[in-house]
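Recap from last week: sequence in, structure out.
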Amino acid sequence: MNQPLRRNLGLDLVRVTEATAIQAGRWMGLGKRIEADRTAIQTMVRALNEIDMNGRIIIGEEAKSGLHSALDSGNAIGNGAGPEMDVVLDPIDGTNLLVHGRSGAVSAVAVAPRGSMWSPFPGVYMEKLVVDRDVAHALVKEALDAPAAWTLAMIARIKKKTIRDLVVFVLDRPRHQDLIEEIRMAGARVALRRDGDITGAILAAIPDSGIDVLMGVGGSAEGLMAACAVKALHGAMLTRLAPQSEEERQQVMAAALDISRIMTQDELILSNQVFFAATGVTDGMLLDGVHYAGGFAMTHSIVLRAKTGARRMIRAERLLEDLFDGEETYQQ
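Predicted structure tokens:
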């Protein structure tokens, strides 16, 4: 029988993302992607394995990166002594941002009771549309196939804005060229970012964040994690698998996954017992990055809990000489 969840599980998770961000942040601007990924993965594994949790990773990064680690899909995580949980994670969302010294890299992890997370594996990519709680009631599944102008007009009407007031978060990818043109022709503004659609989804789900909606295709692992955050923020999300190669399409079909099915955040994550945590690695639109001084590291994190709708922004100071066992001082 599954054990009851602790109220402070979100704080356990943010200690994981803090530790990972602190260690990963040392690779900022050094151009060493493999080393940065390895450091982040090793730190996150160690930190997660100190949590009282019998976790199972729903989808890892191996399908996209080609690298295998203890954080691969289906692997166990946690010390095995606590509740059975589904886990989705990204040690560094935006590794390229980090190693080239650019803004917006974060470390993130989300959990929900075992069996409540839908698995997109082996699907690598998803189409996504995210809005905040003010627009959530009006977001119908047909919006994912509708012209961008129609969706933007609907969002603008509900938010009592003009379309030209809206800002749309889109990943800067060649596959989005037509989408970007549609958005611009409709009159809305575009916030293009090289990576980081977990952050984009959170910003789109937070009212008055400066981002009104997220559109486009991004990673499936990031999409599942974004669904956890959007659910906790009481926003709305539409997703659909979007294979970007014939090989990926064949793998998805062989796994009997329906590439035409449009899903909401409540279909992706069945439970409201969802905890999400993310810590900035480099300075970004949502979170400040890690700053180091005098043997201490300063971090900026967000912690979300779906059941209560709690959103906590946490600034922490941690002693570097003993990252896992040292005392922490939280400043909210």
